[in-house]
Amino acid sequence: MADRPRVRPATMGDVPALAAIERACFGREGADDLLAAELTRSWARVRVAELPGEGLAAFVDGWLVADEFEVHFVATRPERQRRGLGALLLDHLLAEVAAEGATAALLEVRRDNAAAQALYRTRSFEVVAERRGYYDDGEDALVMRCGLGRFLGGPGAGGLR
Ligand SMILES: CC(C)(COP(=O)(O)OP(=O)(O)OC[C@H]1O[C@@H](n2cnc3c(N)ncnc32)[C@H](O)[C@@H]1OP(=O)(O)O)[C@@H](O)C(=O)NCCC(=O)NCCS
To answer: For 98-121, how does the pLDDT look when each residue is reduced to its tens digit (9 = 90+)?
Structure first.
């Protein structure tokens, strides 16, 4: 990527841009209030990838609960996908929460979301369980888990490719 992305914590000023990414990636309208509430939670970790001169291109959101980190969303603007931003954000955030004491990361992903599953596998997540009919539309979830020991050395440490 010619322009290096910057990873930083999301701020309230980012909410409209985050909501636009949610709309583009998930078709969800009106996420502004939910995102603003998320930014007030001390246990939430929302990190953005910003491209110089272009603004926010991707974000990741999750909760640090005791010694586990729950990844809730990773989303990259459609026109900026497959440029390493999702992997970059996960590497930064997983290194950050590992340094805070998290020993594992967990997430649920739709069974038919091959792109997300592929991304998570590149970060060493493995399927550990299935939840039948987990989503509102009846689709199954796969539960994926990743030990965070390998991320303790910083953002570059977890990338195994
Ligand atoms: C899943 C998602 C976040 C990936 O983000 P991204 O920034 O495009 O991911 P990256 O460029 O960092 O991809 C890293 C690796 O993941 C895998 N990967 C990512 N997208 C993939 C796809 N569409 N198909 C296959 N593998 C994929 C590849 O191994 C890729 O490495 P490569 O490009 O060198 O082959 C993005 O597709 C997205 O926003 N989707 C819609 C929202 C969503 O479903 N989020 C996940 C559930 S919350």
So the answer is: 999 999 999 999 999 999 999 999
- CA 106 to chain CA mean position, Å: 11
Query: Is 135 a known active-site residue?
Result: no
pLDDT in tens, 42-55: 999 999 999 999 99
For residue 74, report the distance from its CA to the centre of ligand 1, in Å.
9
6-151: CATH, from 3.30.200.20, 3.90.1170.50, 3.90.550.10, 3.40.630.30: 3.40.630.30
Closest by CA to 71, choosing from 137, 13, 151, is: 151
To the question of pTM greater than 0.90 for the whole model, the response is: yes
Q: Which ligand 1 atom is the nearest neighbour of the CA of 90?
A: 12
